[in-house]
Each structure stands twice: as structure tokens, then as C-alpha cells.
Amino acid sequence: MQLADAQDDARAAVDEEADARATLWRLRVEYTEIQDEVSSLRRPFQDDDPRIDALEDELNRLQGRIEIHEARIEQAWTAMSNALGDRDDAAERAIRRIRDALDEFDDRLRDRAAAVADVVFALARPVLEWIAEVVTAVVEALVKIAVALAVALAVIIVVLALVALIVFLAPYIAALLGAIGSFALAALPVLLKVALVVMSVLPAVIALVLMRERLSPAPVLEPLDDDGETYGPDDPRYDPGAPYGPQLRVNSRLDEDGLTSETHVEIAEMLDENGVPTGAWRVTLPSTQDWEILNGVFEGAPDPAGDQGALNDLSSNLALMLAPDIQAPYERAVIQAMRDAGIGPNDPVLLSGWSQGGILAAKMAADPDLPFSIDAVFAAGAPIDHFDIPDDVAVVSIQHRGDVVPLLDAAGPPQRPNWLTIVDDPLNERGQPGPPHNARTYALTADRELVRGGTVVDRQQQFFTGIERVHTYVGTEGQDE
Predict the structure, then answer these.
(1) How far is CA 308 from CA 331, 366, 477, in A?
(2) Considering its fold, how many domains does the chain have in total?
(3) Where are the stretches annotated Disordered (predicted)?
(4) Which of 2, 110, 291, 347 is 20 to 30 A off residue 298, Cα-Cα?
């Protein structure tokens, strides 16, 4: 297969995956809306509305369509993987042909230079001997420079790959390096200049981003409605014996609701069977949604853009990973929302999040100056193992094999009396390999692995009663404090 054919196949697979993902997103939105309608029709201490049966039939139909488009996405990923393998093979064959051609050209050039030198030497041997020595020295120097440039380019490519890994580009770095490798020989001078410029300005850019995160005002997160949504003992929000999968699906919904323009944070107040607050709270934090200059990379359609409005963006991610002492607007806005919700300094709180949300949860739990009592953390797909979380905080963390994001802190998964780490394979609903860094895949792992109880899980049960009053707080950058 030729390189162009393989690239066409890869682009077709990307288009198929994008189309399936767009359709899947619309179906999930419709599914969530119907779920919300069913929830609104179910009122605590009242008979069910007769419309619920029809709505639940529609939910089953939508679930079937969702599974069809999820299968399309998996097939597209398989086709893309095969196309990328074909492309790499074609690129390697092209590089070998180029090398052979260059070697042949080099041999011919040396032969011709030798013939010319013989004629010149016969005419003016003393002078031309000196000229030949100079030319030979120059040629050797140029060869050494070319080799040094090639080595420097390889080093720069590796460094850029590591930088991309830090900002969560690891799942796609293989494809990126393959594309660079295919054209590096022909575009060596341009790539070198671009890489040198990037490496020279990157530290300054990161420093400016971190300074902006420190100095930028945090917008106010406002509740979507004053009453919130209440779940009673006759209609609990989830099974208290298996709450972690539903909790990660809440994380996924917050991401989908806020997207790149808004930040959605959920704060749930636990209630007893009589509807009286128990004093315990659960705060759910969204993951990175606004990738700013990396906008569209994960969808296969790069579209660099500035700040789109969500607080859970690339800049706050960099602050969490590179300068955790900085309290970015995302964290400050969450603290303000917790105060506004009525969480007291001594109320027990569980912080929950996946990916960036999990990092922020662990960071806040490890902060001795935080004005709240963090008793528990639930995180998935997040590099939190290096945080110095106190021993009296119950931590449950899920990490997938093949997900490089939890490995970014270069610390092993802890297993301590207060810290339970589940490491498992990412599997979809059919038990087949699924995307490793995905909230819904982590939800399925939680459904399988976190139903057996245990000391740490038992310590978190006060935050998962199923009887609760829920408020969603929403805000966007650019609002006044």
C-alpha cells in the first residue's frame, strides 16, 4: 500500500469516527433529557406518572442506537489503527528508498569529484592540492553539521513528545511522530527552525500562563436554580451499594453540559430518610474541556483557539501539574460555590472527579489551608499518587492499564489503610477493550470492581446514600468576581 492510500484510509476513519461521535453526542443529550423528564415525573412520596412507561421505552430505544454508534466508533478506531500501521510501513519503505538514492548520489558525487580533481591536479598540482584540502575540510564539516542537525532534530522531537504527554496528548503521540518521521528528511531545515523557536519560547509561555492563572479573577459560579433537585427514600438517585459507576456518569454529564464554554460543578447535600440534612456533602468536579490552543486535536480536527470560557481548561491543568501551589481561578471558583451552597468548615466533604477533576480533588484534599474538612476523595484516570493527602482522608482511585494520564506523576499506585487504588483493564459493555482514558469506561470499571465494600469504601458510604438534594453551579471566565 502506498503512503497516500494509507493516509486516505486514516482520514476516512477519522471522518467516520467524528460522524459517529457527533451522532452519539446528540443521542446522549436526548437520552439525558428524557432521563431528567422521567426523574421530574417521579416525585418522592407520590405515585408514578403514567407517562413514565412510554418515556422508559424511548430510553431503551435510544440505548440501542447509542450502542450502534459506539460500535461505529470502535470500528473506526480499528480502521484508523490499521491505516496508521500501513502508513508507517509505506513511510519506512519511502525512507529506505530515499536513503539508497542519497547513498548512490553520494558515491557518484565522490567519483566525479575525483575525476575533476585528477584533471585539475595535472594542470596546477601545487595550488590545487591546497584547494583540495580546503574543499575536503569544508565537505567533511558540512557532513558533520548535517549529522548533528539530524541528531538535534531527533532529540527535539522526543522533547516535544514529552511536552505533549504532559498536556494529555499521549494517546495520539505515536501518530504524530509517525507523521513527522514521514516528512522529516525533506523538511529538515523548516522543522529544525520551528522546533528551536518552540523550545526557546515554551518556558516563557508556560511562565506567562501560570502567572495569568495566579492573577486572573475567579468568576462566580451561580446555581442553575434555587430549589435544586431532591431524591427521596422511595426514589433514590442510585443504589447506595454500588454508587461509584453512577457517580462517574455524573462526571461525564457535567463535562458534556459545560463543554468548552462553561464550567458545571455539582454539589450534593446528603439527607436522611426524613429529608433532614445529615451534614455530609459531595462535590463533583469536571475534567478538562477547553483545550485552548489544542482545541480539536483529540477530535482529529485541530482548530487552535483562545480561551473559550470554561475554567477547567488547559491553563488550569498546567497549573495543577506544574505549580500546584498556585490557586487557579477554577479552584477559587469551586471554593466560592462550596461556601455559597452552605458547606461549613467542619462539615464532612467528599470531592469527586476524573482526569483534571480528580487532580483538583486530590490537590484540595492535600491543602492544609483549605477552609473545609475534606474527609474523602474519589478519583478516576488522574495522576494523584504523589499528593500528600492526610491519613484521615479516605481515598478511592481507579486507574486503567494503558491510560498514561495517571502515570504523569511518576509515582506508583498506593495501597494504604486510607487509600484504595483499583488498577484494571479498560473494558466496554461487551467485555471488549475500550478507550482507556474515558469517563464512561471508568464508570463500567467502577460498576465491576467497587461493589465488594472494604474499609476505605465503607468510610465513604456517608457520601453515597442515594437520598440527597443536588445543585449544579455554572460559570464562565470573563464574569466579574
Answers:
(1) 18, 29, 8
(2) 2
(3) 221-246
(4) 2
